[in-house]
Amino acid sequence: KMGLTWDTAFLRTVPGMAMTAEAVLGLVGGFLGIILASGFESFLFWTSAIISGLFLFTHVTNLTQMVEAKFPMFMKVHLGYLIVWTALLAIDLVICIITFKLILIIVALLLLAFLVDLFLKYRKWKSSGSSGAAGPTEPAQPTSPATLESGKSYGAI
Known about the structure:
By secondary structure, this protein is mainly α. Helix content is 69%, strand content 0%.
């Protein structure tokens, strides 16, 4: 038994909204980028839509906990993705400002979503001891994505 459940409560948390914004803005930017964006921007938009969409899917279906149990580096992979794409979006934002590109609005909104997600994911990583350990340091709590992700660490500001 795989234990997959569809729980959309995660989408109503701050990290859920940030990941949803990343995926949706990436998709919107990808389509608008056909006309308005450079190849670099199109790459950022489409990869943001796909990768953030996959991370969002793993959270909504409770796969994140299963994957982190088998692959403890999963949180670090997600954190690394957020760091790299935030840096690339910041560079692109500067380029858009210098060249007066209209796609600047989508780039700025996407960067904001990544910054929020990065801040929350970093806090979760730091509060977990940043050692990469798979097990929690506190007693187990109820296991819905909303409970797991919006508790003391990832979703609470």
